Each structure stands twice: as structure tokens, then as C-alpha cells.
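INTERNAL TRANSFER SHEET
From: sequence group
To: structure group
Subject: Regulatory protein

Please process the attached sequence and return the structure record in the designated field. Keep the field labels unchanged so the import script can parse them.
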Amino acid sequence: MKVIIPMLLAGDHRQQQEVDQYCPALLALLSYARQVPSAQKPIAELFASLSCLPLSLERDLPLAAATAKGYSLPVAAGWLYADLVSISADQNGLYCHGSLASQLTDQEKSLLLDELNQFLAEDGLILYDCDQHWLLAAAQPVELLTRDLTSAQGQSVQIDEITGADAKYWRSLQAELGMLLQQSTVNQRRRDQGFVTVDTVWLWGSGQLLSADYPLNHTRVLCSESKLAQGLGQFCGAKQGASHALGQGVIYYNDCCQQAVLAGDDRLWQRTLVQLESQVFKPLLQQLKRGQLKQLELFIDQNIVFSVTHWGVKKFWCRPKSVQSYRNGN
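Return from structure group:
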């Protein structure tokens, strides 16, 4: 079984302490686990598990396309995430902070959506508000290699982050949207109130969801409440299990930790940890000890896989350690 939880080990020091506090069963699993180096992030493992070909490093994963399918949005030839972010600056450069969607009121989001869509209509583009992510639909396929927001969060960014065949157009559009947002009535009000403003949209996740890459496979079982995972599963014909139907051969995906880190939402982070402990980590530990589950792979850090077996949990001499000791393969 595969458990894929992006950014579970990506929180700050306080959030890591909360993992120790709320997830003792996870710490037990990690103490029994064998650590295997991995060249890809957890989100890439989800797509690799359902793909018939090696993932390309020359193009984006089809994150936005899969999410659009999960939300049953109208068909479009190209999709991108267009997440609302703020940009700060110092003597060393520009820094990206987001996603801000959860910090805006419904009225603010509605006004922003209307303003941006009026501008985008000239190019045949449509922007959709889909909870944590905003999605941009294009009439033509999009060929880009972008920097995902999870790696840009809080980090130094450049104006030429977007590369690929269509990069010139999308860089220009991103700059124009940033200028439009500076004059937005929503930002003017937020500026007056001392709130963080939406400085630009971060474009990423533009890959195409093609049947040649992700063929039908009715033997896979995918369990997730994530619209991204549900959309990918629908496209591939994977069986959709109950959100916490854990067992041999199942792929379980949860992106709530990622949402919490990107949005800076402490309540969502804590609530997610409590749910993961009671609904995922504790049941899996029990299944391994009873022999109901032979092997478990945890994809929770960007460069390492934690592999636990039925025999591994019999190592009575292993003692749980702080999750910080496992971070980034330490």
C-alpha cells in the first residue's frame, strides 16, 4: 500500500512539534521503517503510480487538468493553476507567499474573479475559483515548465520562472495580471485595512492529461478526498475507494497538509494531523502488526520513502524519535 501526503514533513519547527504531539502512531511507523532514497516529490509519486511511462522532467505534471476533471469543469484544451499570491521584496530579491485564497472573503474572491475574467476574455481564457486553487482554462494546449508553488513558497523567485515553448506569452500575461491586481478595488480596500494584498497569480501545473501517458487501469484502487486525485483516478479508470479504505494494493492520497502550509492555516494543519492519526496512521499500524497488511510505503518527504513491513513492526527495540530527525532524509 502507498500513502502519499505531500508536505507532511515540510512545516516549520512549531508544526513539526505538533506532528510529534498529535501523531504518535506515525512516529512508531517511522521508527520501524527502512528509508529509501527517492528522486521525486510525493505528488509525482501519485502520477507515477498511474502512468505507464516515466515522468518527464521537461514538462509540468498535469496537476491543473486533473483538478479540473475532479471538479467536473467544462472541457478545455489547456489548464494551469493560477494561485493568488503576495510578493515581498528586500535587498536580496523577491519572495513568494501564498496561497491567499483562504484569506479572502467570498465577496473579495467574487470581485477579483470578475475583474480578472473581464481582462482574460480577450485571449479566450477563463478563470475558475476552486476552493484552494484557482484554475485557468485555455482554448489551446499549454506547453510550459513552471516552478510549483510548493517549492516557491517563502523562497526567492525570479521574473523568468516560466520556461517552455509558450513561456513568452505566459510571462507577459502574468506581468499584466500583476499590474491589473495592483489597481484592483479589492486590493485597494485590503491595503487601506492593512491586510495582505494579492500581488499576482502564480502559474504552474500546466501539463496535459493524455491517455497515452495515463491509460485506463481498472485494477488500481485510489482513496482520496482530493479533487486532484479524484480527477486523475477518473481519467485512468481507477476504482474510487472510500476516503479511508486502507489495505493492500490501495493508493491513499491526502493533500490537506500541503493546503495548510501554503495557506498558513494553523487550524487546518492541526485538524489534519488529528484526522490522519485516527483514520490513517493508527489503523495502518494495527494492520501491519496483525499481518493484515504486508508492506506500507509512506511518501511524506521530497527525497525519501519510508518502507514498513509486517516483519519490521516486530522490532521491539525500535523507539520513536522526533519527526524532525527524519526530515529531508536525516
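Handover comment: The chain has a mean pLDDT of 91. Residues 175 and 279 are 43 Å apart (CA to CA).
Transfer complete.
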